[in-house]
Design brief:
Blueprint lengths: L10 H6 L3 H7 L6 H28 L1 E2 L3 E4 L4 H10 L4 H15 L9 E8 L4 E7 L31 H12 L9 H9 L1 E2 L2 H9 L1 H6 L1 H7 L13 E2 L2 H13 L2 H4 L2 H12 L6 H5 L4 E3 L2 E5 L2 E5 L6 H11 L8 H19 L11 H7 L2 H10 L25 E6 L5 E7 L56 E4 L5 E8 L4 H14 L4 H6 L3 E2 L7 E3 L5 H9 L4 E3 L6 E8 L2 E6 L6 E4 L1
Parallel strand pairs: 15-16
Antiparallel strand pairs: 1-18, 2-10, 2-19, 3-4, 3-11, 4-7, 5-6, 8-9, 9-12, 10-11, 12-13, 13-17, 14-15, 17-18
Family: Belongs to the gamma-glutamyltransferase family.
Keywords: Hemostasis impairing toxin, Hydrolase, Membrane, Platelet aggregation activating toxin, Toxin, Transmembrane, Transmembrane helix
Protein name: Glutathione hydrolase 1 proenzyme isoform X2
């Protein structure tokens, strides 16, 4: 592919190159001096405007003691409210997640599950909680009979939710506030209604036919007065969910997993031809696991073990450490793209460690020696379009949806947590008795009779088994410095683009001198091996894209927004928090 027009790499480059326009005026003697002066003064004024505008925005995101970054409009303030009351980082994260289940109802909620990385500043230790959904006891690898739609829509797509029990177990271990305090502002938000953003409106519009076809969703997503979908600035109220949250706040998770609520949930899922039984709720357990730990230079990275994808993130950073940034940006991005391809080849071998022997794969992905070996295989002036060259013989499914919350507390503790119901609005069904939207997490498993569009067979390591957790791209990550102080809290939403977007932001922020907002705002590039295509955002460097194309890469633009990051960095005592503009998120702190 040949790029026809030169595009600015980012807004900073655009502003700094503004003077090139004046050169054109100088070449034409017909322009009078006063016109040049007017243009100069106008440009100077515009430059000053941008300077002060961005300086203002930068101050807005800078805090001294603590910060919370979320995707939901109301959720960062709610999380900070918990910190102001003396709550822990985990308290703030749980409250923010409960809020996200209302504000980002298309992405997450009590009908889903999450992965959480925790930094305990008091004990200088990292912890990790897996509250991922699991396959029902009656599930089997042939349950969809080769029909991928059954894994995406309806009751058969629903896995056993882990979200609520995850909140409870995290709070038991790390919470300071009373359980009920975490729910109070969210119950109020359900009654008042959460604000519809442009981002949410776009997803409502894209799913309109499905929403109208399912009355349980139409009940909350369609304005009863106009019979139209809710618009930007409207408030979506969740009165039924408010009542459910009141019961959970008072009674704890047992009412959900082993009470009257359980029977109603099972009845509703089975009414949509699902196979979940009461015993599946009763027997659900979260998993406390050791986070993946890696030392990269003078920094230590803690991230998500399988079924999360933190091992791929660790591998990417280990391979690239020491060889980027290169003085030639084209070579830097060739190294990055090739590393992405090697990483996603390894993804085909990952799965729930309780059901598959992935010890050797994990050892390789976290080994510096193995990373160095792969580093030597990367060529700066050529690529391969054969997935088997990189070691991929099968492919796991794409995942989607999700929301991410990043928290840094005044005591230095931190939480990075990603939650999901998988596809937008999950299985496209809602519990009318509780107001909860159900996940379609069974679609994150591989199925033996469903070969992907590129003719590559599915990954047996990720086949369905009762009680098994499906593979996920979620990679909640915390980076600490040599003094064991938090340097970066980061994570993302966005399916298979999660891992590459986090890696890119970390590379730019930790190694390349960009502040965290710049690192997140810059146009991105992505490769997941299949499709065998470099995907880029509009505004990415034309020079780099042409180089990649000339050495053999297929190059195409992103569809959709890709991935949306929330992050908090801390350097020299200054806390800098940001939420990706791609999803209209919010930050708050003090």
């Amino acid at each position: 592919m040949k790029i026809k027009e030169k595009e600015a790499t980012n807004i900073w480059e655009t502003i700094s190159n503004g003077s090139t326009y004046f050169g054109r005026y100088k070449k034409h003697s017909s322009y009078r001096l006063y016109l040049f002066q007017v243009i100069f003064l106008f440009s100077l004024s515009l430059s000053l405007f941008f300077f002060f505008f961005f300086a203002y925005r930068r101050r807005w995101f800078t805090f001294e003691k603590a910060a919370v970054s979320t995707h939901g409009q109301e959720c960062a303030e709610i999380g900070v409210g918990m910190l102001n009351k003396g709550g822990s980082a985990v308290d703030a994260a749980i409250a923010a997640l409960l809020c996200e289940g209302v504000a980002s109802l298309h992405s997450m909620g009590l009908g889903g599950g999450f992965l959480m990385t925790i930094w305990d500043a008091h004990n200088k230790t990292a912890d990790y909680l897996d509250a991922r959904e699991v396959a029902p006891s009656e599930a089997n690898e042939n349950m969809f009979h080769g029909d991928p739609q059954l894994a995406m829509f309806g009751g058969l797509a629903v896995a056993v939710p882990g979200e609520l029990l995850g909140y409870w177990e995290a709070h038991k271990k790390y919470g300071k506030l009373e359980w009920i305090e975490l729910f109070e502002p969210i119950i109020s938000l359900c009654i008042k209604g959460s604000i519809v953003t442009k981002y949410l409106e776009s997803y409502l519009s894209s799913k309109e036919s499905l929403i109208r076809a399912e009355k349980s969703l139409a009940e909350i997503l369609i304005n009863p007065t106009t019979n139209s979908l809710w618009k930007v600035g409207d408030r979506i109220k969740r009165p039924r969910l408010a009542e459910t949250l009141k019961l959970i706040a008072i009674n704890g998770p047992d009412i959900f997993y082993n009470g009257n609520m359980t029977d109603n949930l099972v009845k509703e899922i089975r009414a949509f031809k699902g196979i979940i039984k009461r015993e599946d709720f009763v027997n659900y357990k979260v998993k406390w696991r050791k986070p993946i730990k890696s030392t990269i230079g003078n920094l230590t990275v803690y991230t998500a073990p399988p079924p999360g994808s933190g091992a791929l993130l660790t591998f990417i950073m280990n391979v690239l450490y020491g060889i980027i940034p290169n003085q030639d940006n084209r070579i830097t991005w060739q190294n990055i793209i090739e590393t992405f391809k090697w990483a996603y080849a390894k993804r085909t071998k990952l799965a729930d460690p309780d059901f598959a022997n992935i010890t050797q794969v994990l050892n390789n992905l976290t080994s510096v020696d193995y990373a160095n070996m792969i580093q030597k295989k990367i060529k700066i002036n050529e690529t391969s379009n054969d997935p088997t060259y990189y070691g991929a013989i099968t492919v796991p499914p794409d995942d989607s949806g999700t929301s991410h919350v990043s928290v840094l507390a005044p005591d230095g503790s931190a939480v990075s947590v990603t939650s999901t119901i998988n596809q937008v609005f999950g299985a496209m069904i809602r519990s009318e008795s509780t107001g909860i939207i159900f996940n379609d997490e069974m679609d994150d498993f591989s199925s033996p009779n469903i070969t992907n569009a590129f003719g590559v067979p599915p990954s047996p390591a990720n086949f369905i088994k009762p009680g098994k957790r499906p593979l996920s791209s979620m990679s909640p990550t915390i980076v600490v410095d040599k003094d064991e102080h938090v340097r970066l809290v980061i994570g993302a939403a966005g399916g298979t683009k999660i891992t590459t977007s986090i890696a890119t932001a970390m590379i730019l922020n930790l190694w390349s001198g960009y502040d965290i907002k710049q690192a997140i705002d810059l146009p991105r590039i992505h490769h997941q091996l299949l499709p065998m295509t470099v995907q880029y955002e509009q505004g990415f460097s034309t020079d780099i894209l042409n180089y990649l194309s000339n050495i053999g890469h297929n190059v195409t633009t992103y569809t959709g927004i890709g991935s949306a990051i929330t992050a908090i960095s801390k350097q020299n005592g200054e806390i800098f928090a940001t939420s990706d503009f791609r999803r209209e998120g919010k930050t708050a702190g003090f």
